[in-house]
Amino acid sequence: MSTSFSRRDFLRAGAVAGAGLTLAVTFPACTAGGEQPPAGPPWSPNAWIRLRSDGSVTLVVDRSEMGQGVLTALPMLLAEELDVPWESISLEQSPAHQDYINPDFGIQGTGGSSSVHAAWKPLREAGAKARQMLITAAAASWGAPPAECSTEPGRVVHARTRRRIEYGELVERAAALPVPETVTLKDPKDFRYIGKPMPRLDTPDKVRGRARFGLDVEVPGMLVAVVARCPVFGGSAKSWDEAAARAIPGVKHVVRISSGVAVVAEGYWPATKGRAALGVVWDEGPNAGVNTEDIRSQLAALGARPGVIARKDGNLAAARGVREVAAVYEAPYQAHACMEPMNATAHVEADRCTVWAPTQFQFGNPQMPGAQQLVAQLTGLDPSKVQINTTLLGGGFGRRFFNDFIAEAVETSKAAGAPVKVIWSREDDTQHDFYRPAARASFRAKLDADGSPVGFSSHIVCASINVSMGAPADKLDDNSVDGIMNLPYDIPNVSIAAVNARFGVPLGFWRSVGASQNGFMLESFIDELAWAAGADPVEYRRGLLGKQARHLGVLDLAAEKAGWTTPPPAGRARGIAVVESFHSYVAEVAEVSLNPDRTVRVHKVVAAVDCGTVVNPDIVKAQLESAIIYGLSAALHGEITVRNGRVEQSNFHDYPLPRMRDMPEVEVHMVPSTVAPTGIGEPGTPPIAAAVANAIYALTRQRIRRLPIRAVPV
Amino acid sequence: MLALKVNGKNVNVDVPPDTPLLWVLREALHLTGTKFGCGIGQCGACTVHLDGVAQKSCQIPAGSAAGKSVLTIEGLSADGDHPVQQAWIAEQVPQCGYCQSGQIMRAAHLLSQKPKPSDADIDEAMSENLCRCGTYQRIRRAIHRAAGEVTA
Questions:
Q1: What percent of chain A has a predicted confidence (pLDDT) above 70?
Q2: Does B137 sit within 8 Å of A625, measured CB to CB?
Q3: Is-contact A277 A241, C-beta < 8 A?
Q4: Fewer CB within 10 Å: N-end or C-end of chain B?
Q5: How many other C-beta atoms can be found within 10 angstroms of the C-beta atom of residue A563?
Q6: Is A208 within 8 Å of B74 when comparing Cβ atoms?
Q7: Beta-strand runs (E) in A595-645
Q8: What is the pTM of this model?
Q9: Across the interface, do B37 and A340 touch by the CB < 8 Å criterion?
Q10: Contact call for A212 and B32, based on CB within 8 A
Q11: What integer best gives the mean pLDDT of chain A?
C-alpha cells in the first residue's frame, strides 16, 4: 500500500555501505539532551519491543552488558520471533522497573549466568505475540484469514494474493488489538538468528572508543569525587584536615559519607590530590588484627567442628574399602579486578534523583534492595522519583551486584548539592572489594580392590557469603559447597558437611562463586583417586559417570579433541577436569610444561561445553575463552592476603593478571543440544585450576593442593 | 595554559602541568575513549600515540606533552575504518570492551613498526596491555589479520 521511503530502508542502505550495524544505545527519556522520537508515540506490545509507524524497531535490553554478550543475545531472541531485519534494530537499555525482573531470581539483576536461560521463553513469546498481532492487523486490513498470512523480516505477507505490508503501517491498528494469551513459537529449523554467530551489536562502538561506560558519564555541572576509606575493614574516620584538602586548587567540598570521607573536585586529579592531603586519622575498628596466617589456622581449627550436613547418601561408616586416600585443599581470597574501577554518577535534587552507573542490580525488593530501592532509602524519595540509568560495564564478574559505589555517589551528591561522579582508584578497587571467600576442605575416600571409591567424605570450612550478609551462623551456605555437594560421580556412600567461617573480610560473588574454588578441590581429589587406583584420569571418571550423560558427553568430547590418548610433546603433560555449574557442563583438558624456574606454562586448553541450545556460538566460544583466563588468574597469578586487617595487594604490580604472553591456545567445542539454553558466563571457570594442577601432577608427580600455583616443588 | 595538539587539532587547556595527560584528554577535552584502569602504567588502558609512539598517558604529565602530537582512539580513523579496527570487528575481539581502546592503539603502533609481526613480536608488544575478559587470543588473530596474514 505505501511506497514511502521507510527508516528501515535507510538503515538497510546504511548497513550495506558501512561496516555493520550502526548501534544506537540510548537512555530513557529523562536524560539531558534526549532526542525526540522520530514518528509519533511507539507501539509497545510489551516491555521489550517498541515499533513506530516509520518501521523503526527498538528492542529493550534489561540485563547489564559486562562483556558476556547479553546486548546481542537477548535482542536475538526478540528479533527472531518478532521477525525483523537484524540491521533495523535499535537498542535501548531498560530502566530499573518491576517489568524487568529476572524470573530466576525475583529481582532485576544480572548474574548467575542466568540472562539467556531466564529470557529464553519470555522474550521469544513477547516477540511472537507481537508478530501475531501484526499478522492479525494485516489480515483484518486485507479481509484475509490470519492463518493464510505469514511474515518476512519486517513485513506481513499474504502469499495467495501476493500482498505485503510493512510492520510500520500496521502499528496503529495492532495497538488496538488485545495481546494474545498464547502463541506458537518458531520451529528451530526456521531460525534466522538463533544458533548463528550474529556479530555483537556493541562491537563497532567499542573499537571506536565511543562506548560509554560508567566512568565515562558526563553531565552538566558534574563534579568528581574520590573517597578516603579506612584501609582496615570496618573502621571509620575520626578526624581529617579539611583545610589541607581544600587548599588544593579545584577541590570544592570535603564531606563525610557512610563509607569514608569524600573529596569533591573539578576533576579526578585534583580530587586525588585533595584526598592525599586529608591526613585522615582512622578508628581502625574490630578487624585490625585479622591476618591471612590466622585465617588459615582458624580454617584448619574449624575443621574439627562437625558442621552442617550438605549431603548424605548411603552409610559412609559401613562402607568397606581396602585403602584410603585423604587430602586437604585450600584456596585464598580473590579480587574481581574489573578493568573499569568502581564508579557511579548521581544527581540528587529536591524532588528526584538520577543515577548513571555500571550496575548489575537495578531493582529488588525490601528484603534485597536493588539500586532503585537503595537510592530511595538514601534520599527519602519515592522510588518512582529515582531513575537508574545502567551504562555499559567494564567487567562485572559479580562485583557490581553490590551497589556500594551508587550509595557513595548519592550521599556525596546530596552533600555537595551538585551531580557527582565517584571514581575509585585501582588501589581502592583492589582493597575494598567483596572477595571470593578463603576456604579449606578435607577429603577422604575409601577405595575397593579395583580402586573404585565406595565411600567419599568432604568437610568444608569456608568464609560464608550468606553469614556476612546476615544469615544465621549455623545455616548451610550453598555458596560454600557448590561444586562439591553436587559431585556427579557414582559413589554409593557420600557425606559432605560444611562449617561457616567469618573473618571480617567482605565477601561477594566471584565469577562462578563456590564452584570456582570447589571445582579445583574436588576435581584435583578425584584425580588423586585415579592415580591411587593406577587408572587413567579420563577412564576413571568415565567409569563413575555412567549415570551422568551430560558430564560424560563433555568429558568424552574434550578428551577426544585434546588427543588424550596420544602422548603430548616431550616435556608436556595433560590434565582433565569436569564440572557442572549454573546448569551447564564443562570439561577442560590443559596441556602444560614447566619453565626453567619451575613456574607453570599452559600451552593449550581444550574445552567442551554442553549449555543446551546455543543461541550465539561465537559468544559461547568467547565466554569459555574468557572464563578460562579468569580462572587461570586465580590458578597461577594472584591472591589476596590480609595483614592487620588490610588487604596487602593494591594494584596490578602485586595482584598480577595474565597477559598476552601467558595466554594459552584455547579451543572450544560445543555439544549439540536442543534443550533450553543454560548458563555460559561462568561455567568455564571451575574446571581450569584442577585441569592445570592435574597436568602438573602428570608431569612432575607433585600434587598441588593450594592456589595460586607458583613454582612447582621439586 | 598548556598548548597541545590532539588528533590533529591545536587545543589550549588550563590544567596544572603535572596533571596526567590521561585526565586532560578525558576531562578537559571530553575524549573519553582513552580509559583509566590503574594509574601506574601497568594495564595500558590509557594507551595513546605521542609523536607516533604508543605511550601510557597516565604516566605522561600534560606539561611534557606540550609541543608534541597526541593521537587518541577517536583520532585513529574517521569512522572506525583503520585496518586494526576493521580486524577487531571481523574477529569479534571485544567483550566488555574497556581495555580495547588501549589494545587497538598498541596494536596500531606495533603494525606501524612491524607490518608482519611474529607471535613473539605480538607477545612482547601486547603484553603491555591487560585484558580481564581474556580476549588475547582474538587480539592476536586480529593483528595477524590486519597484517594481511590471515586469508580465512
A1: 94
A2: yes
A3: yes
A4: C
A5: 13
A6: yes
A7: 600-610, 642-643
A8: 0.95
A9: yes
A10: yes
A11: 94
How far is A502 from A465, CA to CA, in rounded Å? Answer: 9
The span from the CA of A561 to the CA of A607, in Å, is 9
Are B132 and A657 an interchain contact pair (Cβ–Cβ within 8 Å)? yes
* Spatial contact of A585 and A699, defined as CB atoms under 8 Å apart: no
**What totals of helices (H) and strands (E) does chain B contain, helices first?**
5, 5
Cα B43 to Cα A658: distance, rounded to the nearest angstrom: 11
* A637 CB within 8 Å of a chain B CB: no
- Express each pLDDT in A278-306 by its tens digit: 999 999 999 999 999 999 999 999 999 99
Q: Which residue has the cell 545455616?
A: A475
Note which residues in 142-161 of chain A have CB less than 8 A from chain B.
none
Q: What is the pLDDT of residue A30?
A: 27
Nearest CA in chain B to A426: B38
Place of cell 579433541: A561
Nearest to A5 by CA among A36, A28, A34, A38: A38
> Of A202, A268, A339, which has the smallest distance from its Cβ to B45's Cβ?
A339
Q: Which band of pLDDT confidence, cut at 50, 70 and 90, is reported for residue A117?
A: very high
Confidence of residue A39 (pLDDT cuts 50, 70, 90): low
Per-residue pLDDT of A155-168, as tens digits, reads: 999 999 999 999 99
Give the residue among A380, A335, A42, A57 at the shortest CA–CA distance from A201. A57
Q: A241-278: b or e for each residue (b if 16 or more CB lie within 10 Å)?
A: ebeebbebebbbbbbebebbbbbbbbbbbbbbbbbebb
Give the pLDDT score at A9.
34
Render pLDDT for B46-61 as a digit per residue (tens, 0 to 9): 999 999 999 999 999 9
| Nearest chain B residue to A664, by CA | B137
Question: Which one of A204, A392, A426 has the shortest CB-CB distance to B80?
Answer: A204
pLDDT of residue A366: 81
- Burial of A614: CB neighbours in 10 Å, binned 0-12, 13-18, 19+: buried
Q: B19: which 3 cell numbers?
A: 596533571
Neighbouring residues of B82: CB distance < 8 A, sequence distance ≥ 6: B76, B104, B108
Q: How far is B57 from chain A (nearest CA, A)?
A: 13
Q: Give burial (CB, 10 Å; 0-12/13-18/19+) of A352.
A: middle
pLDDT digits (tens, 9 = 90+) for B67-98: 999 999 999 999 899 999 999 999 999 999 99
CB within 8 Å: A67 and B37: no
Burial call A313-341: b when 16+ CB within 10 Å, e when fewer: eeebeebebeeebebbbbbbbbbbbbbbb
- To the nearest whole angstrom, how far is the Cα of B46 from the nearest Cα of chain A? 11
